[in-house]
């Protein structure tokens, strides 16, 4: 099942459109249910988006933010997703600290996965899951050749060992838990992603391709990533 492919002229145009769309979706969710549950992508690609959300003063006490994955590094390590997000967005937001739920990956993959799974108990479908995609087609910390937790009875959170990119120990939401999202939005930029996107377009099974939103799945792309001539 293919996502909706939304190709923007460049990364700046993508960030502007996506930030507006995310804020609109938050308003709709809050109007309908009084709360907005958002899963955040890690890594460096979405940082421009998070800075744009900071500029918009996006987020308040009705927003609840979760993490798609985290590296098992010290809690204050600069390359932790939680550290990058605090600097890029949360420090300038009105989202209360208790609504910002980083994965406690400093405890190690197995313990952190168990703890985060407990935190998610009783939490219903996410409103939006923001995800990236690597050059190998991985998303969150679900890598080719590793278990993706895509069976319906999979645990919500996976301990990832021997990941093919450092650090090897990680924690990730499972594909099954990500599939309990109303909307799944991928944020993909740069020419290095073209090969994986072509595989996805051609129907190959990748970690990214098994994650689907209940209402919609959208791949937000810049023109550099889109394999238009392939």
From TrEMBL:
Its EC number is 3.1.1.31. It catalyses: 6-phospho-D-glucono-1,5-lactone + H2O = 6-phospho-D-gluconate + H(+). SUPFAM superfamilies: NagB/RpiA/CoA transferase-like. InterPro entries: 6-phosphogluconolactonase_DevB (IPR005900), 6PGL (IPR039104), Glc/Gal-6P_isomerase (IPR006148), NagB/RpiA_transferase-like (IPR037171). Pathway: Carbohydrate degradation; pentose phosphate pathway; D-ribulose 5-phosphate from D-glucose 6-phosphate (oxidative stage): step 2/3. Pfam families: Glucosamine_iso. CDD domains: 6PGL. The keyword Hydrolase applies. GO terms for biological process: carbohydrate metabolic process; pentose-phosphate shunt. Hydrolysis of 6-phosphogluconolactone to 6-phosphogluconate. Belongs to the glucosamine/galactosamine-6-phosphate isomerase family. 6-phosphogluconolactonase subfamily. This is 6-phosphogluconolactonase. It comes from Thiobacillus denitrificans. The lineage of its organism: Bacteria, Pseudomonadati, Pseudomonadota, Betaproteobacteria, Nitrosomonadales.
């Amino acid at each position: 099942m293919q996502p909706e492919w939304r190709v923007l002229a460049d990364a700046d145009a993508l960030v502007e459109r996506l930030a507006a769309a995310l804020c609109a979706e938050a308003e709709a969710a809050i109007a309908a249910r009084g709360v907005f549950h958002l899963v955040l992508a890690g890594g460096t690609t979405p940082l421009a988006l998070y800075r744009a959300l900071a500029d918009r003063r996006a987020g308040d006490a009705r927003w609840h933010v979760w993490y798609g994955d985290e590296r098992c590094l010290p809690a204050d390590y600069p390359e932790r997703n939680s550290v990058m997000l605090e600097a890029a967005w949360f420090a300038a937001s009105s989202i209360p600290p208790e609504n910002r739920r980083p994965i406690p990956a400093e405890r190690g993959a197995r313990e952190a996965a168990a703890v985060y799974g407990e935190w998610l108990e009783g939490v219903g479908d996410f409103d939006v899951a923001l995800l990236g995609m690597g050059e190998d087609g991985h998303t969150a910390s679900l890598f080719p050749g590793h278990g993706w937790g895509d069976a319906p009875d999979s645990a919500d959170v996976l301990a990832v060992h021997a990941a093919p990119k450092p650090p090897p120990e990680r924690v990730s939401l499972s594909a099954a838990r990500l599939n309990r999202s109303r909307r799944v939005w991928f944020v993909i930029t740069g020419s290095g992603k073209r090969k994986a996107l072509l595989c996805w377009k051609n129907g190959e099974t990748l970690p990214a391709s098994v994650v689907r939103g209940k209402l919609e799945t959208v791949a937000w792309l810049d023109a550099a990533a889109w394999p238009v001539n392939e």
